[in-house]
Amino acid sequence: MKNTFTLSLCVILLTLTSTFAQKKPIKLGVVGLTHGHVGWILNREAKEDVVMVGIVETNRDLAQRLSNKHGFPMEMVFNSMEEMIAAVKPDAVAGFGNIYDHLAIVETCAPKGIHVMVEKPLAVSLEHAKKMEVLAKKHQIHLLTNYETSWYPTNVKAYELLHKGTIGALRKVIVRDGHKGPKKIGVSAEFLNFLTDPKLNGGGAIMDFGCYGANLMTWIQQGKKPNSVTAVTQQLQPENNPKVDDDATIILTYDTAMAILEPSWNWPIGRKDMEIYGEKGAIYADNKHDLRLRISEGYSGYDEEIFKLGERDAPYDEPFALLASVIRGETILERYDPYSLENNMISMEILDAAVKSSKTGRTVQLKN
C-alpha cells in the first residue's frame, strides 16, 4: 500500500513538473530591427507565453531610437547572433531584418536547435529557401514564415466556405495586396533601404506583396502547384524605386482554375483582399473583418450574405502566441498552413518563377 502511494505521488509530481516546464515562457531573440513589422514584438504586451531576451542589431543609432520609443534596455542589444545566443540562450529567434539575411539566421540557429520565425517571404530566392529547408529538417527545428494575412478571420472563413462546396468548384481567385509605396507611406530609412534593394529584398513589389497571393493560393490548393506562372512587372515610380519593380501582375494556371495576383506599390489605398469565384457563387474577403458571400441567381442576380468577423481565437490571433504554441507542441500546423515550411517552399517556387517570367517575358512551367 505504501509503495502504491509513493508511486502515485511520484506520478503526480512528475506531471506537475512537466506541466510547469511546458508553461515556461519561450525565450525569444530578435535578429534585426530594420523591418517595419518589428513593432509587433516591441509593442507586444507582456504575456506568459513569450519573453524577449535579446536583440541583434549593429546599427546602434537605430537601436537607440527604438529603445527610446519602446522602452527596451540597450543592454539587451548585441552585435552578433553568436554573442546574443551565448549570453541569453534563446529558444527561438524572430527575424526582423532584410530578407537576404534569413538564410544566415537559419544557418546560425538551426545547428543549435533554435527555432526560427521570419517575416514574409521565407527567402530572397528559391536557392536560399532550399538551403534553409535542408537545415531546418536536418536539425529538426520549426521554421515558420509570418504573414499578416494568416491572422485574417476573413481568409479562414473564405477557405472554409470554399472547401465546404458553398460556391461550387473553384474557377478563379484574385488576390490584391499593397499600398502607395514604401517611400510614400513613410517607412523608415532603414526599411526603405532594403525594400528597394534587389539583392536584400529579392525584388520590389513582386516579392514584397506577391508572396501573399502565392502563400494563400498554396493553402487554398492544399499544396498543389500551379501548372504555369506568367508575370509582368512595371516601374511606375522610378524616382522612388529606381532599382526594383513597383507593380506586378502574376497569373497562375491550374488544371481547372486560375489565379491572378496583383501586388503593387501603386495602389492609392492600402489593401489586402481576395476574391474567390466558384461555379455557383463568389466570396469576397474585403479586409481582415468584412466578408461577402454571393450565390448566383439567374444571369446577373445573386443572394448575398454579409459577415462581420471578430478576431481569431488564440493562438491564431497573432504570430508570437502561435510560435510559442507550436514550439511547445500544443499546436500542430495543418499541412500547407500559411505559416508552414511546406507551404512556403511552394510559395518560393512560385515567386522564383514569377521573377524569371517577368525578366524573360516568357511563361514558366512548373513540375508537380
Structure description:
This protein has 368 residues and is of the alpha/beta class. It has two domains: 2-148, 3-Layer(aba) Sandwich (Rossmann fold), CATH 3.40.50; 152-311 and 335-365, Dihydrodipicolinate Reductase, domain 2 (2-Layer Sandwich), CATH 3.30.360. 36% of the residues lie in helices and 24% in strands. The protein has helices spanning 2-22, 39-42, 60-70, 81-88, 102-109, 126-138, 153-163, 189-195, 198-201, 205-208, 210-220, 319-328, 341-360; strands at residues 26-31, 50-56, 77-78, 92-95, 115-119, 143-146, 170-178, 228-234, 247-253, 258-264, 271-278, 281-285, 290-297, 301-308, 364-365. Strands 14-13-12-11-7-10-9-8-15 form a nine-stranded mixed beta sheet. Strands 3-2-1-4-5-6 form a six-stranded parallel beta sheet. The longest helix has 21 residues, at 2-22. The chain starts with a helix and ends with a strand.
Structurally, the number of domains stands at 2
Main beta-sheet annotation = 9 strands, mixed
CATH homologous superfamily heading of the largest domain: Dihydrodipicolinate Reductase, domain 2
Poorly predicted sequence stretches spanning 5 or more consecutive residues = 1-21
Name the CATH class of the largest domain. Alpha Beta
Shape: globular
Q: Predict the CATH topology of the largest domain.
A: Dihydrodipicolinate Reductase, domain 2
pLDDT averaged over residues: 94
Radius of gyration: 22 Å
CATH architecture of the largest domain: 2-Layer Sandwich
String of helices and strands: HEHEHEHEHEHEHEHHHHEEEEEEEHHE
- SS class: alpha/beta
Note the total helix count: 13
The strands making up the biggest β-sheet line up spatially as 14-13-12-11-7-10-9-8-15
User: What is the strand tally?
Assistant: 15
Domain Gfo/Idh/MocA-like oxidoreductase N-terminal: 27-144
Keywords: Signal
GO molecular function, one term: nucleotide binding
Pfam family, one: GFO_IDH_MocA
